[in-house]
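Retro notes (design track)

What went well: tokenization of the new backbones is finally stable.
What didn't: we kept losing track of which sequence belonged to which structure.
Fix going forward: every design gets posted as structure first, then sequence, in one message. First example under the new rule, 72 residues:
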């Protein structure tokens, strides 16, 4: 969860929006007790982390490309 909160700092719609959505997702699944379902939810969380990291890296790449390779 802390890794997701950390990644939420740079979320395009803002940290407050991200934090609210994250809290809602965790609250929705807090009563889950089936170990298999918990593993699926953890795997989905790890997928979300990887996707956010990829999006942030892409944004940084595009910024650097725009800065050094002007298309004028």
């Amino acid at each position: 969860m802390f890794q997701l909160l950390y990644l939420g700092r740079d979320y395009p719609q803002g940290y407050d929006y991200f934090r609210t959505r994250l809290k809602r997702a965790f609250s929705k699944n807090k009563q889950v007790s089936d170990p298999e379902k918990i593993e699926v939810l953890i795997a989905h969380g790890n997928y979300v982390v990887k996707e956010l990291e990829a999006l942030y890296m892409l944004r940084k790449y595009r910024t650097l490309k725009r800065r050094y390779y002007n298309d004028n």
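Added context from the reviewer: Residues 57 and 63 are 10 Å apart (CA to CA).
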